Amino acid sequence: MKVLLTNDDGIYAPGIYAMAKELSNKPNVEPIVVAPDREQSATGHAITVHKPLRVNEVNKLGEKLNVPFYSVNGTPSDCVKLAIESIVDDKLDLVISGINRGANLGTDVLYSGTVSGAMEAAILGVNSIASSLVDFEYEDYSVAASYTSKVAEMVLKNPERFEKGTLLNINIPGSPAEEIKGIRLTRLGNRQYENLFEKRVDPRGKAYYWMAGKVIEDTSDTETDVSRVRDNYVAVTPVKYDLTDYELYNNLLDWSF
User: Fold this and answer.
1) How is the chain split into domains, by residue range?
2) Residue positions forming the annotated binding site for a divalent metal cation
3) Quick check: 8 pLDDT over 90?
4) The domain 2-251: what is its CATH number?
């Protein structure tokens, strides 16, 4: 089975290498990496339309694993679109975006390049997973890779369970394996940022701003990804790109425009 790996931290990030290493040891799984040549965090679902995309094989990364690594001067969505339509010859069985450095919980999915990479695959009709290691400072990606691989195995065994346009968003606590309580299916929670803009003045007297966000998490609903991760569970959340509010749609059918 052929599995495409991408991310938004860049092709040299430890998370994607850990995922490639994990999959390279699986029988009948053929991973291929197509990822941005530099960090593309918080790019959302941006695509590149005003410059050409260039692809380079990064042999020094893939040689030990016998896995092809390709870098692209674009976004995660560019990488997935390009891989599916131009780079990978055979049909893909799965796309995994990650392992991201840092959480992608709740409303993070709207900003995340990691989730958008998986979402692009879903749009193109390929089952996909977005994977994130919640603790930004935690450096051991092996546990996250193991859990992601476990979920990937379930997806590969049950592809018919997925409707078109749906992905699984996984968030793994930054903890040793023995401290993680297990895996829970969750809903998206409420994780917002209290945006703090620090105003500064450059040497020419012009004002500029640095944005830094303080995270505000709502853990009142114990079935959300935010709450489950805080309780040291791996959170697996089904996400789809159809953002239509069907309840409101039905309520407005009687409007006369």
Assistant:
1) 2-251
2) 8-9, 41, 100
3) yes
4) 3.40.1210.10
